[in-house]
């Protein structure tokens, strides 16, 4: 029998689109920062460069078989961020949407744990085609809840870094932080949450792909 620790980590990596999606997400902000700086701190130029970079990334991913929905959502995020910066005239406001989305994500993940619908379980269960079967496994549900706190901390860390930089108007620092706290942080979060998940499953548990559903629950499902 395969041990729980040997269950594929790629399921967790797929949770947020993996390395490719995280790297793609950093290209438009970097383009904005470079365009803004090279054009003498012009918000308009920075936004134009970011949108062009977003279009190039979207076209590249669609051409390579990327999911249209996720690609278009990413492009829409760039456009909204650009419109906010153009409306306020403040370069740092290009990163306001990212700041708000991380604050909202931290709150949503925390609430999901409290109400016993941890989002890590919801997403991984969806990826594995389990629907809500994982919730009928007390050990797996509890492990997902504890591992989800790692993701809450990830979002809170971004807020803690982005908020003062945004308040002080440090656009260049926001650009650097946006890169540093995307793929490297996601990679660390995936590793940490996978470790927490495994540590909280009994040694006899078959792993995340095989929820242990009580006999009574199985019978109820068949009926």
UniProtKB/TrEMBL annotation:
Short name of one Pfam family: DUF3159
Q: Transmembrane ranges?
A: 36-58, 70-87, 107-128, 149-169, 175-197
Name the UniProt key words of this record, in alphabetical order. Answer: Membrane, Transmembrane, Transmembrane helix
Superkingdom field: Bacteria
Q: What is this protein called?
A: Uncharacterized protein DUF3159
Organism of this sequence: Stackebrandtia albiflava
Q: What high-level taxonomic lineage is stated for the organism? A: Bacteria, Bacillati, Actinomycetota, Actinomycetes, Glycomycetales
């Amino acid at each position: 029998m395969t041990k729980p620790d040997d269950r594929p980590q790629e399921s967790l990596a797929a949770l947020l689109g993996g390395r490719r999606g995280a790297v793609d997400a950093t290209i438009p902000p970097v383009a904005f920062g470079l365009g803004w700086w090279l054009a003498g701190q012009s918000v308009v130029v920075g936004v134009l460069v970011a949108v062009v970079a977003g279009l190039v990334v979207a076209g590249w991913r669609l051409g390579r078989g990327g999911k249209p929905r996720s690609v278009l959502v990413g492009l829409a995020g760039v456009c909204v961020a650009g419109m906010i910066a153009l409306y306020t005239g403040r370069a740092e406001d290009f990163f306001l949407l990212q700041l708000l989305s991380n604050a909202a994500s931290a709150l949503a993940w925390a609430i999901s744990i409290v109400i016993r619908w941890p989002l890590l379980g919801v997403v991984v269960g969806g990826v594995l085609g389990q629907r809500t079967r994982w919730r009928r496994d007390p050990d797996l549900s509890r492990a997902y809840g504890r591992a989800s706190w790692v993701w809450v901390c990830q979002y809170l860390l971004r807020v803690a870094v982005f908020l003062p930089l945004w308040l002080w108007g440090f656009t260049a620092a926001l650009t650097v932080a946006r890169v540093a706290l995307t793929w490297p942080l996601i990679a660390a979060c995936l590793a940490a949450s996978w470790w927490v998940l495994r540590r909280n499953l009994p040694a006899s548990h078959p792993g995340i792909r095989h929820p242990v559903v009580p006999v009574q629950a199985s019978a109820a499902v068949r009926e």
